[in-house]
Amino acid sequence: MTEMRFRNFGGIHQFMVSDEADLARIDDLDPARWAATSAPLSDLHCDPAFLRYIDPETTGRVRVAQIIEARDWLFSRLGQRDALRKRVEVIPVAAIDDKGEAGAGLRAAAERVNREQKVADAKVITLADVQAFKGAYAKLLSNGDGVVPAEVVPEEDVQAFLKDVMEVVGGTPDRGGSNGVDADKLKLFVSQGKVWQEWRAKGAAAKPWGDDTEAALALVREMDPKLEAYFIHCELLRTEAPSPESLRLKDDDLRALRLKAIGEIELFLQGAPLSAPRVDGALPLDASVNELYRDRFEALRDTVIRRALGAGATSLSRADWRRVKATFDGYTAWEKAKPAEPFDKLGDDKMKAYLDGGLPAKVEAYIALDLAAAKEIGQIDDLEKLILYVRWLVELVNNFVNFSAIYMPMQTALIEAGSLVIDGRRLDFCLKVANRAAHKAVAVLSNIYLVYVEVLEKEGGAVAYQLMAPVTGGEAGRLRVGKRGLFIDLKDKEYDAIVTEIVDNPISVKQAAFAPFRRAAAAISSKIEQYVATAQASQESAMQARAEAGVTEAQAQVEAGATQVGTGVGVARGAVTPPPATPAPSEPTRPASEGLNPNSLILGGGMALAGIGAVLGGIFGVISSLTGWLAILGVVLTVMGVSALLGWLKLRRRDMALLLEASGWAVNVHMTITRPIARVFAFVPELPKDAVLDRTDMLPVNPEDESHAGRTVVLVILLAAVITGVWFLRRRLGLVH
C-alpha cells in the first residue's frame, strides 16, 4: 500500500490526490480530515453532465458519500487508470475492463460509437464522439425512452393519430427534444376516449326538448341572474314596504341619464331591475321590462316559459321559474359528466375510427421497439459518464479532500468563476454570489477586504450575476462603490463589472500603518475646505459692505457740498446758516474709493492663508508643546506602530474558509492567508519580458500652463504661512520667549 503524503498549503497539511493510488485512499481519510464535506453544485464550474451524474438524486449538493460512490463506480469499469493523471476527455478502448458484465457492455458501446462515427483511430474513445452519437441517436425512433414522436414514424396515418393524441391529452418530451406519445398518454387517450363515446351516446336521451334543448337552456342561463334579482327585489318590497315609486327612476334621474354617454346608460341599465317589483312577487309576462333585456325576455317567454308552464301562462312566480329550470336538470347533469379531455375537436367519426381500428396497437408496437433499446442507450450514457469521471473526478476530489487548486497560481479551483480586472490589478479569486446580503453576513467575519460587483452582459441591461472578490495584497487604491472593471470568465468571455459594495478591512501592514494619517488628512482637508469657503464668503460680504458704504459716503459728501453752496447764497441774502450735521459714531467717514480698493482682496487672501496656517499650526503646536519637535516624530511613530500592530494582528486572522462557508460550503479547515498566498489572489501583472520603459515625457510643455517657477513660489508662500502660524501659536502659548 502506498503512503499517504500530506503536503503543506499555506500552513495547512492536506492530502493531495494525484493519481489512481491516491484516489483509492480517500475513504481511509476520515471526513473530518477533508477540507470540505459538502458544497452546492451550482458553485462548481465544470461540465454540467458530470454534475448530473454525480448527483443522480438531484439533491443540488455534492457530499463525501457521493464522491466515494463515484470513485467505486469508476474503478469497477476502468481497468487501466493511467488516464486519471492526464485528466483528458479521451481514454483507450482497451482501458475499459470487459471482464464484468457492466464493463463488457461499455466496451461494446464504445466500439459501436466508433463504427457509427467512423473515427480514424478506433483504439480510443472520446467524449466528443460519444456526445455526437447520442445527439444523433436521440432523434431516432429507438432511443430507449419509450416516447414516439410523430416525425420519426414512417406511416402517415400513424403520424396523424399521434398528433391527435397529443392534441387531446398532451405529449411527453422525447430524448431528441420534441414531444411524443408514451404508454401512459396512449392508455389515457384510449380509456377516456371510450368514456367520452359512452357519454355522447347518452346525450340524446338527456335532452328534454331534443334539438331545441341547448338553445333553450342558453336563454335560461342568460336570464336567470336578472329574474332571481327581480324576485329578491319583490321580497324586499314585501318585507320593508317601500313604495313602488321609490324603486323607479325619478324625473331628475331621467334628465341626468339623457345627458350621459350611451355607454354609461347601458351600464346603468345592466344594474337596474328587470321590471318594477310587485308586492305579490309575480312577474306579468306582458309587463314592461328593462329595455336592455326586452328582446331576450320575450324570446324566453315565448320559447321556454310558456312551453314549460303551458301556453296559457300569464305571469311568472319564483316557484314557476324554478319549475322551468328543473326541466333541464337531467341535461345539466349529463353535461357535468363530460370527460375533461377535449375529444369534441376530433368528432364522433374520427374517434370511432381511432378506437375501433388498429392505430393504438401500432403505436404500442413502436413504444415497445423504442424501449427495447433502453439497455443499449443506458450503456451509451454510462460510456459518457465514464469519460467524464476520468476527466473531472480527481479534480473534484482535490476541491474537497484538499484546496490545493485554490493555492496554486497555475490551477483554477472549481469554485472560481474567473478574474476581475480593476484599478490596475487582477483579482483572481472570484466567487459567484446568489444572495449578496446573506453572503456578506458570513463573509464579513473573514477580516478580509472584500469587493462585491455586479456583472452586466451589455450596457443598460439586466445584471447577469453577482461576484465577490477578496483583495489580499497592495492597497485599497481607488476602489470604491460605483467603480467599473472588467470581468473575464473561465471561457475568456468579457463582461462589464460595477462595484456595488465594499467590506473594508486591512489589506497590508503598510496600509494599516498609514490608515490613521489618511483619515486625519481627509478630516483636516475637509475642515480646511470648510474654513476657506467660510472665509471667502465672509471676505466677499465684507467687500460688498465696504463698497456700499463708500458709495453712500460719496453721495453724502456731494449732498453736503451742495448744501454749503446753498448756505453761502443764503448768507449773502441774510439767511441763517444751519450747523453742519455730525456723522453717527457707528458710521465713520471713509473715502468713497475705499470699498473698491484692490488691496482689500490681497488682505482677504492673506487672512485666509493666515487662518489655514493657524489651523495647521494649532495641530502641530499642541503636539510639539509637549517636549519639542522630536515629540512629534515620536507620536507619529507611536501611532504608526500601534496601527500597524493592530492591522498585523487582524491580517493574521484572515480566513478564506469563511468566504466558502458564505457560499454554502461545509469547510473543515482554517485557511489563513500568508504573504505568498495573498500575491496569488490579488496582484499587478508584470510587463512583457521585452518591454522597455522610456523615461522621456512625450507630452510637450504648454507655455500657457502654470510654470514650475510659479508653482514653487506658491509652495514657498504656503510654507512660510505655515511656519508663521506655528510660531505665532507657540508664542501665544508661551512656548517662545
List keywords for this structure.
about 50% helix, three-stranded antiparallel β-sheet, about 725 residues, alpha+beta, 26 helices, flat, 5 domains, eight-stranded antiparallel β-sheet
**N-to-C CA distance:** 88 Å
Spatial order of strands in the largest sheet:
13-15-14-17-16-11-12-19
Which structural class do the helices and strands define?
alpha+beta
Rg result: 47 Å
* Count of spatially separate domains: 5
Give the oligomeric state of the chains in this entry, treating copies of one chain as homo and distinct chains as hetero. single chain
Describe what you observe in this structure.
The chain starts with 5 loop residues before the first strand and ends in a 5-residue tail after the last helix. The strands form six sheets. It has an eight-stranded antiparallel beta sheet. Strands 4-3-18 form a three-stranded antiparallel beta sheet. The protein has a two-stranded antiparallel sheet with strand order 1-2. It is of the alpha+beta class and 737 residues long. It contains 26 helices and 19 strands. The radius of gyration is 47 Å and the shape is flat. It folds into five domains: 6-140 and 373-407, no CATH class; 150-204 and 342-372, no CATH class; 209-327, no CATH class; 418-505, no CATH class; 507-552 and 593-653 and 710-737, no CATH class.
